[in-house]
Amino acid sequence: MVMKSRFKIESDSNSWVHIFEELEGYSPNYSFKIARWLSPPINCLKCNTNGTSKGSPGPSSAAFNIRGHLGDLVIAKGFKIQDTMNLVVEARAIKEGLLFCKDKSIEHVIIESESMAMVQIFEGKWDTPWSVALEVNKINELRGCLSARVHHSFKEGNTLADYFANLVFHASDLQLNQYHDIPNKGKAILNMEKIGTPQIRRSITNC
């Protein structure tokens, strides 16, 4: 279970005594959501993607994993990228996942990314930043060749892709084709996601 929260309080006082008094009377309102990995339809695969950049721009890595209706692993790939920004590595992860699907003639796939910015771009709600224009153009080209939808996923429903992206960041490029190839920590994450283990997202609504 993952529970994170942040809050911000504005005060007109410069006195620490008064500020502490205000804090003592502060009672935030929390909202809760259940987040988990959901399996795709029977005749469809799901590709979860994630990218990480330490510094943005800075050393970066990206990864994707593809699973079927029962949650079993089809492929997991992770790779390092030259110093770049978060949005670029998120786009690279999506592009590489779609390239694999095209190469393997996988026509029906759901792409899940925890990058809301990328999802908004593909839904036409945000303009494409110049930094990812080439990647977005290639992704749209690949989507035209496949029956591929791009959806948003909360971080808690994308934990395996996040694990692989961070794993390759601290090691070397990887490609895993079978369950027994996955490190034990990754196996535990996959098994938890396969059975739909829920995680709770907590946020403060009255900041």
TrEMBL record:
Domain spans labelled RNase H type-1: 48-167
Q: Name one GO molecular function term.
A: RNA-DNA hybrid ribonuclease activity
Q: SUPFAM superfamilies this protein is in?
A: Ribonuclease H-like
* Matching InterPro entries: RNase_H-like, RNase_H-like_dom_plant, RNaseH-like_sf, RNaseH_domain, RNaseH_sf
Q: Where are the transmembrane segments?
A: none
Q: Which CDD domains match?
A: RNase_H_like
Cross-referenced PANTHER family: OS05G0353850 PROTEIN, RNASE H TYPE-1 DOMAIN-CONTAINING PROTEIN
Task: Please state what the protein is called.
Answer: RNase H type-1 domain-containing protein
Q: What is the phylogenetic placement of the source species in the record?
A: Eukaryota, Viridiplantae, Streptophyta, Embryophyta, Tracheophyta
